[in-house]
Amino acid sequence: MDREEMRQQGMRPKMPAYDETPLCSVGKVVRVTLPSGQLRRAMVECVEENEDTVDVAYIDAAEKDQSDATVPTSWLRPLEPGELIFLEPNAFANRLEGATNAKEVGNVLFKLGDVEAAADLYGRALEALERAPCARNTWILANRHGMLLPGKVVLVDDSGKANVELRSEKSVEVVRGIPQNALIGVQLEHLLLQGSLHLNRSRALTQMGQQQEAAQDLSVVIALWAAYSASGSSMQTECKEQLIKAYYLRAKTRISRQRPEPARADIRSAWAVGPSTATAALLRQAERDVEIMEKEKVRSNKKLAKEIAKLADVAMSGKGTVQRAVSDCARCIPKISKVQVG
């Protein structure tokens, strides 16, 4: 039966397996090795007549002008075998199995160097785990006044919105009418998997230069274990190590963003949980990094203060106009403000 006969009978022809088609096939998803060594997934859009080059569209390109390129065919390589199942629409039909497999394959891609693909796969696994419909008495995380708080669903109304009982260190608050897509489902029985996916994605995002997004993932891990404790469950050693790791990595992202006080608070929280010997060494190094950062900020502030004082002296001595001195001072002030922000 040919394709036309199958079309007339409402049947779809069977697509060839991934390894049954040439690497330079239009519509095929491949991996491109760039001269820098970076690896990126792309779809083949056009094959040139001489077959020496192909036009590709990069998947998950951050900017539109970076999405298309013409590359030599020698830069192409096939996807990893474990990735192929995630090209199928039902890859997460079994949410737990799909998320577990996605974590393993994502780790392979991360070690391979394709951090974009790894982050995407971790994200798809989290979407499958965390966006399941809420039911009464299930644990969730919700954003309240800029803080991610654990809580329980007390009611789901006919429109699908949830009333939740949010718990902080000081109070319990019932918040009504929260859309379910604004909630993060807490998988108490599989929390190590859920936390690992967020930790791993944060590492990938950090390598992609997305420090703030990485910190958000780490904040989710910390809130997940707060929900675990609020549920009455006792934390084992492996659970504590994941929580400590989240505090440590978030401190590192805050150090990179010149935020010493929040970084120091995370380090203190990690010490309070009780780190292993190896992790304790990392925390001590992070403390030294904070001290170095603060000393550098003090030096920068003193240097800028001297510049302003010099400009003021020039204005007072009559060697320059007051207006010019004020203008120069105004240019220096934002620099000081930027350095002092925590």
From TrEMBL:
This is Ribonuclease H. InterPro entries: AIP/AIPL1/TTC9 (IPR039663), TPR-like_helical_dom_sf (IPR011990). Gene3D superfamilies: Tetratricopeptide repeat domain (1.25.40.10). It comes from Cladocopium goreaui. It comes from the Eukaryota. Keywords: Repeat, TPR repeat. The keyword Repeat applies.
